[in-house]
Amino acid sequence: MIHTGKMDIVRHKEIARDVFEMTVIGQHTTAMNQPGQFVHIKVSDHHEPLLRRPISICSIDQDTLEFTMIYRVDGRGTKLLSEKRPGDTIDVMGPLGNGFPVVATPDIHAWLIGGGIGVPPLYELAKRLSESGVKLTIVLGFQSADDVFYEEQFRELGETYVTTVDGSHGLGGFVTDQMALFEQKPAIYYSCGPHAMLHAVEQALPDVPGYLSYEQRMGCGIGACFACVCPTTTGNGDYVKVCLDGPVFPAGVIA
User: Is position 9 annotated in a ligand binding site?
Assistant: First the structure.
């Protein structure tokens, strides 16, 4: 069920360079049952900016009716959002989209691969997989040490590796550089990040079932505006809407 309405901000802080963690409380949280979904946020109380901003759900607490989002400031809308303070309210629409299927098979081995602002939706997934007894290997990629966040939170859930492109923190290079060093392949993998990273992950694990969450510019968030369409691999000119059909798709679906 999709809810639309005001939610109260209970915590809000910068956790890395231009990256903010916001926790809100309200009844919307009762409908959040699937890791990997997102919400659409109205960033101001005025008509401008007109469009809402899609932000991934990072973690969910049904007991307190709180959920947490992590977003990066990269434009006017998210800059306005970053100026909100605890006690303020925001207009939230969600949960939206289809998230990650949680494989609840104890002792199987799963890889979680995240890049940049694609890391947050993997956190709730990691919690649920860990609770189910799934063995996790987690690889998180960032540009530099200033951009790293949630490293310790993920370490509490599984074996975690952090990579930075400039080598200033953790392992140097891209996430796929480190994946190539692992001798044992997983039974399943989950990934979220830039399109080029997801394509590289698919190529590195061609025979392993996986689920990929795509980052795409969106307008309406409910499949009406066709702003977020992506071509598929069918070869028939078929397209999918990332906001409605995704953002999570099985590996091999998106071209």
Answer: no
Q: Is 189 annotated as a binding residue?
A: no
**225 annotated ligand-binding residue:** yes
Average pLDDT over the chain, rounded to an integer: 94
Asked whether the predicted pLDDT for residue 235 surpasses 80, the reply is no
Asked if residue 49 has a cis previous peptide bond (ω within 30° of 0), the answer is yes
The answer on whether 77 is annotated among ligand-binding residues is yes
Average pLDDT over residues 43-72: 93
Residue 61 has a CB neighbour count (10 Å cut-off) of: 14
What span, in angstroms and rounded, lies between the C-alpha atoms of 243 and 103?
23
Q: Indicate the fold that domain 3-96 takes in CATH.
A: Elongation Factor Tu (Ef-tu); domain 3 (2.40.30)
87 assigned to a ligand binding site? no
Q: What is the pLDDT of residue 131?
A: 95
pLDDT tens digits, 135-170: 999 999 999 999 999 999 999 999 999 999 999 999
The reply to whether 30 sits in an annotated binding site is no
Q: Is 56 annotated as a binding residue?
A: yes
Instruction: Provide the pLDDT confidence category of residue 189 given band limits of 50, 70 and 90.
Output: very high
Q: Binding site annotation covers 220?
A: yes
Query: Per CATH, which fold does 100-213 belong to?
Result: Rossmann fold (3.40.50)
192 is known to lie in a ligand binding site:
no
Distance CA 69, CA 162 (A): 21
215-254, what's its fold?
Dihydroorotate dehydrogenase B (pyrk subunit); domain 3 (2.10.240)
Q: Confirm whether residue 85 is marked as ligand binding.
A: no
